[in-house]
Write a structure and sequence with these properties.
The protein has 2 domains: 65 residues, Arc Repressor Mutant, subunit A, CATH 1.10.10.10; 133 residues, GntR ligand-binding domain-like (Four Helix Bundle (Hemerythrin (Met), subunit A), Up-down Bundle), CATH 1.20.120. It has 10 helices and 2 strands, in the order H-H-H-E-E-H-H-H-H-H-H-H. It is mainly alpha-helical. A hairpin with a 3-residue loop joins strand 1 and strand 2. It has a two-stranded antiparallel ribbon. Pfam families: FCD, GntR. InterPro entries: GntR_C, TF_FadR/GntR_C, Tscrpt_reg_HTH_GntR, WH-like_DNA-bd_sf, WH_DNA-bd_sf. This is FadR family transcriptional regulator. One of its GO terms (molecular function) is DNA binding.
């Protein structure tokens, strides 16, 4: 139900491949949406979503009145994040704060129900994140990150919380994708280490530890995006 990021990744992956291979060169304008969608065999709506994803990752840049261009240099060299897509609904800080509260609780609850197969899947996704960051496959890196969090959410025994997570998922996952262009190698190494600490806490069946490790990870991701949020939600009791 929660597996994989809900965007047209086939088109995004094809375009990323064209960029990495040099078929689409640095600074080059991409074809019109009508022409590009036709050549890729996808709908224009799917293409637009794919282009937005690649722009968020820092691989493309849209210039009003001119079109969409392949970014020059590596994403981390550009040091710019894309416009927050949901600004008309919620500030990005609110979404990060919601993630800390919601995913922290999910991690704590899921620590009691995750199976050995799911633990192995979490480890595999973390390895995939690391491997694809090193190879420059940003889409695969992001897909593995999103799947990591989705596996944990899927194991949550509180189905109402799972439904809430699913209803907010597009906004929540956008906060995972958006900092990629300004994520340097040191921060990615730290993020991967945080994923491994989350796995260890989940394996220990320690609700408080699993909650705090997830909240700390999301807080650090927010900090990477220039937003300072406390890593834990105060207890109102």
């Amino acid at each position: 139900m929660l597996s994989r990021v809900p965007v047209p990744h086939a088109a995004a992956r094809k375009i990323q491949g064209m960029i990495l291979s040099g078929e689409l060169r640095s600074g080059e304008k991409v074809p019109s949406q009508r022409e590009f969608a036709l050549s890729l065999g996808v709908s224009r709506a799917s293409l637009r979503e794919a282009l937005l994803t690649l722009e968020t990752l820092g691989l493309l840049k849209t210039e009003p009145g001119r079109g969409t261009f392949v970014s020059q240099g590596t994403p981390s060299a550009s040091r710019n994040m894309a416009r927050w897509r949901y600004a008309d609904s919620y500030p990005v800080a609110d979404v990060f704060e919601t993630r800390i509260m919601l995913e922290g609780r999910i991690a704590g609850l899921s620590s009691q129900t995750l199976t050995e197969i799911e633990f192995q899947a979490l480890e595999a996704e973390t390895d995939t994140m690391e491997r694809n960051w090193e190879s420059g496959d940003l889409l695969a890196n992001v897909e593995a990150d999103l799947e990591f969090h989705a596996i944990i959410a899927s194991a949550c025994p509180n189905r109402m919380i799972v439904d809430l997570y699913q209803s907010l998922r597009n906004k929540l996952t956008e906060t995972q994708i958006r900092p990629i262009p300004i994520t340097d190698p040191a921060r990615m190494r730290a993020s991967i280490a945080e994923h491994r600490r989350i796995i260890r806490a989940l394996r220990s069946r320690d609700v408080a530890k699993a909650t705090s490790e997830m909240q700390n990870h999301i807080s650090n991701t927010a900090r990477c995006a220039g937003i300072s949020i406390a890593s834990s939600v105060p207890n109102s009791d």
